[in-house]
Write a structure and sequence with these properties.
Blueprint (H helix, E strand, L loop, with lengths): L4 H18 L12 E2 L5 E2 L40 H17 L5 E4 L10 E11 L2 E11 L4 E6 L2 E5 H11 L3 E6 L4 E5 L5 E7 L4 E8 L5 E5 L1
C-alpha cells in the first residue's frame, strides 16, 4: 500500500520543528560581581575599621622646690630666769616642732622634772605630744650648783606629710604626683624602713620610693 504525499509532508514538517527546538541555546544568567574594599581586594561583606586606642596622656611635672624647707617659728619661750624645768620642756617642744616641719600645739610631760635643779644627774622618761600625736623619749640632766646641761633622745620623731613630699620632689625631677602612706602628721621611728611614697612620673609611670626621717627631722629619699 502506498502512503499519500500529503501525509509524508506532515511527518517531515514535524521532524523539522522538533529539530529547530533542540538547537536553540538557553539565555545566560548574569553572574553577580563581588564588591571590592577601598584597598582593591574583593569583600563579601561590609568592611570593619580597626578600633582606635586611647593614647597615654603626658602629665605635667610638679615644680622642684627652689628654697630649703622653712624653719617654723616657735613661740612661748619662757624667761631666762624661769625654772629650769620650764626651760627644758620648752626646748624639747621647740625641737619637736622644728623636726616636724611646722609649728603646732606641743606638750612635754616629764614626771619628776621639778627635781632636776637638785645637783646631780637625773634621768627621766618624757612624753612629747605634737599635734595630738604622742611619742616618748629619755631626758638626762646633769645639774650643778649654778649650771645644768641636758639632753633629750628618742627613737621616734613627728613629721608633717608636706615636708616629706617636699623632700621627694627634691629627689625626683620628673614627678607629676607624689603619694605617701602617712597621715598629715605622723610619728615615725628613724630606725625603721621609712615612709613609703609612690611617684607618678610625667610619662605616667609609677615608681616606689622610701623617705627615711632622722632624729632631727632630716628627710632622706631613695628609690625603693
Amino acid at each position: 500500500m502506498k502512503r499519500s504525499p500529503a501525509v509524508l509532508g506532515m511527518f517531515v514538517l514535524a521532524a523539522f520543528a522538533l529539530s529547530s527546538c533542540s538547537d536553540s541555546k538557553p539565555e545566560a544568567v548574569p553572574t553577580p560581581t563581588p564588591t571590592t574594599s577601598s584597598s582593591g581586594t574583593p569583600s563579601s561583606g561590609p568592611s570593619s575599621a580597626p578600633i582606635p586606642t586611647a593614647s597615654t596622656p603626658t602629665l605635667t611635672a610638679l615644680p622642684t622646690p627652689s628654697k630649703p624647707w622653712p624653719t617654723p617659728t616657735v613661740t612661748g619661750a619662757p624667761e631666762n630666769d624661769a625654772p629650769l624645768a620650764d626651760r627644758i620642756t620648752f626646748a624639747i617642744a621647740k625641737q619637736a616642732q622644728i623636726a616636724a616641719g611646722k609649728a603646732a600645739a606641743t606638750t612635754v610631760k616629764c614626771p619628776g622634772i621639778d627635781k632636776v635643779e637638785t645637783a646631780g644627774k637625773h634621768e627621766l622618761t618624757c612624753t612629747v605630744t605634737y599635734a595630738g600625736k604622742p611619742y616618748t623619749g629619755t631626758l638626762t640632766v646633769d645639774a650643778k650648783q649654778y649650771t645644768a646641761s641636758y639632753k633629750f633622745t628618742s627613737e621616734s620623731v613627728a613629721i608633717v606629710r608636706a615636708k616629706v613630699v617636699d623632700a621627694v620632689l627634691r629627689t625626683v625631677q620628673d614627678a607629676a604626683k607624689v603619694t605617701c602612706t602617712m597621715d598629715d602628721v605622723a610619728v615615725v621611728k628613724h630606725s625603721d624602713a621609712g615612709i613609703a611614697c609612690d611617684v607618678t612620673t610625667t610619662a605616667n609611670a609609677v615608681q616606689p620610693y622610701k623617705a627615711q626621717v632622722s632624729g632631727n627631722g632630716q628627710v632622706l629619699v631613695a628609690k625603693a
